[in-house]
Design a protein that fits this description.
Helices cover 53% and strands 5% of the residues. It has helices spanning 31-36, 53-72, 78-104, 112-123, 130-142, 157-161, 171-177, 183-186, 189-196, 198-218, 222-244, 265-270, 277-282, 298-308, 320-330, 345-352, 355-358; strands at 5-8, 42-44, 47-48, 109-110, 312-313, 315-318. A two-stranded parallel ribbon has the order 1-6. Strands 2-3 form a two-stranded antiparallel ribbon. A two-stranded antiparallel sheet has the order 4-5. The longest helix is centred in the first third of the chain and has 27 residues, at 78-104. The radius of gyration is 21 Å and the shape is globular. The two termini are 29 Å apart. The structure holds zinc ion (ZN) (2 copies). Residues 100, 104-105, 137, 141, 280, 284 line the site of one zinc ion. Keywords: Fatty acid biosynthesis, Fatty acid metabolism, Iron, Lipid biosynthesis, Lipid metabolism, Membrane, Oxidoreductase, Transmembrane, Transmembrane helix. This is Fatty acid desaturase domain-containing protein. Pfam families: FA_desaturase. It comes from Cryptolaemus montrouzieri.
């Protein structure tokens, strides 16, 4: 059975009163913020925050250890690398195809077995709970590059990459975060099960099983297996974080030149297709998260496999006509096919202040 695909080609005419594409270039923290949250401290420059020292300590230790593992891996231990990549890919798909494209953006529909599979794969990545992950990401899309964005790239590469996990959230993230609806998640019994047993599930799927399985079946040593598990976990975290950092900073903006997210092949390679980020922030409901299907986009391949099985359906994507209009109106001119039409900033912003785009999370 061919996968069912919903093609959106609606002509955009209605305008919204909220300007979505004005990038906030103002200083990150203001006096008003400090008045709002008295616990804010100034440590250096404009980078004001309250540090979570336990997170800093753990992340530093784990990264140093992972660097050491990479440095010491040798040809006799390639099997560990293969096992790590396999486990990392399962967790990675849980993040990209599950938490991101399914649970956050609802780019497609999934039957019960697929939802269970996505939940388990996501949990094996060892990241935040599904609810926290989805809420942070919806807030990120709605308030990109403002103080309310949990990993606001205006605060620099380090903050957007992992610094945001080392400090208390900006008061705006908490305030505006409450305005983002995530009630749909709690309606799903699969998500409720995940939340109820999150800690034991995470320990079991991210750490215990990936360590014990190769020990039991292939007799690998405990140290080797534990090292592989830790290396896999930290590497996968960095691949995910690169979407929030590098894919918001360095690259072209062929679809919308008014927003920070960019197109980056390197991040797409690392994050299984999530680096086509200028496109994704323009069409967040496209299940491919890219204009193209399988070009550096393993996640789309697997969603299509599940669609062939009938487990995934109603895959959403925009029509070529709609993409062309957006590219010509608001792209930076770098699109391979329609990149020659450059429009004024006012035209681009006006065109994208639309009802359709307002529904982008
Ligand atoms: Zn983003
Ligand atoms: Zn997204």
């Amino acid at each position: 059975m061919p996968p069912s695909v919903t093609v959106v080609s609606q002509t955009i005419t209605e305008t919204s009163s909220r300007p979505l594409f004005i990038v906030n270039h103002s200083k990150t923290s203001t006096k008003t913020d400090r008045a709002y949250d008295k616990s804010y401290k100034t440590l250096w420059g404009y980078f004001e925050h309250e540090i979570k020292w336990f997170n800093v300590f753990m992340l530093v230790i784990l990264h140093l250890y992972t660097f050491y593992l990479y440095y010491t891996i040798h040809i006799g231990k390639i099997h560990l690398l293969v096992w790590g990549i396999l486990m990392g890919s399962i967790g990675g798909f849980g993040v990209t195809g599950g938490a991101h494209r399914y649970f956050t953006h609802r780019c497609y529909k999934a039957n019960l077995p697929l939802r269970i599979l996505l939940m388990l794969a996501f949990t094996s990545a060892g990241q935040n709970s599904l609810f926290e992950w989805v809420r942070d990401h919806r807030v990120h899309h709605k308030f990109s590059e403002t103080d309310a964005d949990p990993h606001n790239s205006k605060r620099g590469f380090f903050f957007a990459h992992c610094g945001w996990l080392m400090m208390k959230k900006h008061p705006e993230v908490l305030r505006k975060g409450k305005t983002v609806d995530c009630s749909d998640l709690l309606e799903d019994p699969v998500v409720r099960f995940h939340l109820k047993y999150f800690i034991p599930l995470r320990i079991m799927l991210c750490f215990v099983l990936p360590t014990l399985i190769p020990m039991y079946f292939w007799g690998w040593s405990f140290t080797d297996c534990l090292d592989t598990t830790i290396g896999k976990w930290i590497t996968l975290l960095n691949c995910t974080w690169s979407v929030n950092s590098a894919a918001h900073l360095w690259g072209a903006r062929p679809y919308n030149n008014k927003i920070c997210p960019v197109e980056t092949k390197a991040v797409s390679f690392l994050a299984m297709g999530e680096g086509w980020h200028n496109y994704h922030h323009t069409f967040p409901w496209d299940y491919k998260a890219s204009e193209f299907s399988y070009y550096f986009n393993v996640t789309t391949f697997w969603i299509d496999v599940f669609a062939k099985l009938g487990w995934a359906y109603d895959l959403k994507q925009p029509s070529r006509d709609l993409i062309e209009k957006i590219v010509k109106k608001s792209g930076d001119g770098s699109h391979f096919e329609w990149g020659h039409d450059v429009v004024s900033e006012e035209e681009g912003v006006e065109f994208l202040q639309t009802k359709q785009y307002d529904k982008r999370i």
